[in-house]
Amino acid sequence: MNYHEKEMRVTYALTLNELIERNPNVLCLEADLSKADATIPEVSTKNPRNFINCGVQEANMIGVAAGLAKEGKIPFCASFTAFATRRVYDQITISVAYANNNVKIVGNSPGITQGPNGGTHMCFQDLAIMRAMPNLHVYSPADANELRAVMFHMADHHQPTYMQLVRPKMPKLFDENCRFDPQSAVRLHEGADVTLVATGFMTRFALDAARELSAEGLMVDLLHYPSVKPFDAQALIDSARRTGAVVTVENQNIIGGLGSAACEVLSEQHPVRVKRLGIPDQFGEVADQDYLFNKHGFGPQHIAKACRELVRANT
Amino acid sequence: MEQQQISREQWDTLAREFRYVVTDAICRSGSGHIGGVMSLVEIVITLYYRVMRIRPEEPTWPERDRLVLSKGHAGPILYTALAYKGFFPKAWLATVNQNGTRLPSHMDQILTPGVEMTAGSLGQGLSAACGMALAAKLDGKSHRVFCIIGDGESDEGQIWEAAMFAGHRRLDNLIVICDYNKMQIDGTTQEILNLEPLADKWRAFGWEVFEIDGHDWDAIYDGLAQADAVTGKPAMIIAHTIKGKGNRETENRVDCHNVKVPDEATYGRIMCGLECKMDLPY
Q1: Which domains does chain A have, with CATH numbers?
Q2: Residue B105 forms contact with A (CB below 8 Å)
Q3: For chain A, which terminus, N or C, has the lower number of CB atoms within 10 Å?
Q4: What is the predicted ipTM?
Q5: What are B101-119's pLDDT values in tens digits?
Q6: d(Cα A128, Cα A87) in Å, to the nearest integer?
Q7: Where are the beta strands (DSSP E) in A109-219?
Q8: Which among A213, A52, A38 has a CA at the least distance from the CA of A222?
């Protein structure tokens, strides 16, 4: 696969600069992880007035952002996923979602991509807990071009939002003019044998699996969900009607996240067999991607295997 | 500061009326946070009648002064002031905390005209007030942001995060009042989690600190005027107050934080404790 030249985090920072130049009310808030988010030096030097480093105080950052948003600002608040979500869940609940203050929360390095920081930093439940929050949208773009489109959408809509930000370079999945619609899943591979549902970091691996299976003659209908909430139920139901089998894969605990969203829709509207891949209700650990894929069984080869098994079980 | 020429006796009369109305409004719902409401009566009246620049007919007037009531459980006293100033009909006060109300026990910026920030989970309002003050700085605006926090609320770590943030950013358009009634739900602040030396703490965080009698009209007004004149740093007014003030059934009693009013007899006893009788405006 062709990779983007820039890391996702660099695209995050460059896009923030674009957004600020378009609308000076856009602000970049940080809690002492600006270098991890690449906003130092990108935003801090080009738009110092719009760059607010709160120090290591995520709770206050969310509250300050709520106050700024109440006054018409559009704050993007970034930290590692664990600190951007579970650490400040009540602040997001009351000051942002319940109050409908237009705050954008960005969780850097989701799931296993925290690698060397290990179990304390690996957040496997952010999609689940943020999805369970009324009045909050939850996005997880899969490549740099989609990330940029998602951020433009966020800046242009009054909507409290959480977005996962994958940090490294990612393969090119979308072109520069790609569009983002939170109501729509994106079909990245067409097939009628099995439906594969993915989001964010895992979408590229799902595509790897779909291509591998295609060479075997097993055709995968791959639906990428840049928005986990709202969740495009119709696309999934339509696909499941054709395939009768659904595999979900996420860089998360399989409880509560993307797989659960798919199961909620299917169990109520079109029951079919579903296999959920991801972290089987465990904490993280210091380890690299392949080790954790193999340990928990959700890398590309595991995705392909789950698809084969589900198709076989259905015939 | 805008001064209204009203005598001390007239202010006392208004405070008595506020206490009577807010106690009735709370008791009608069956229970409520009478203690921390009564300790704020003089402060809220002074803010809304003498200090804050507001336009009740235009609640979102951009140049208005903002008040964030971070101790969101004191909502009913703010509702009383907002109703009396004309943000909404006084009849709404009879619906406090009842099914379908626009005046819930804790502040809700979506439901209530004049409420700037949703608050109720303690510690969060001060952070939001910092954000509002910072927004005014970024936009070069001259309005002020007031915030009322509780003493029990000051147990929250987020209060001290915000204290450090406002001090570091020199938010001199931010004036915070701590309702220091020395009591929290489970007991006195001294026995549950001692706040002292409170003034020194705020000074150490880079704030200009004033200490006043939170029931003395002149002290409140002068304290706010002095706080407004501070430049280069945020201002903290530690208001020494009495929880449940003005009602012999609640005054200075730890158990007045959330008073249950299950029946007419209890309602009558609590209203009698106010030692006055007046007509309700609804």
Answers
A1: 8-165 (3.40.50.970), 186-314 (3.40.50.920)
A2: no
A3: C
A4: 0.96
A5: 999 999 999 999 999 999 9
A6: 14
A7: 137-139, 161-165, 186-189, 194-198
A8: A213
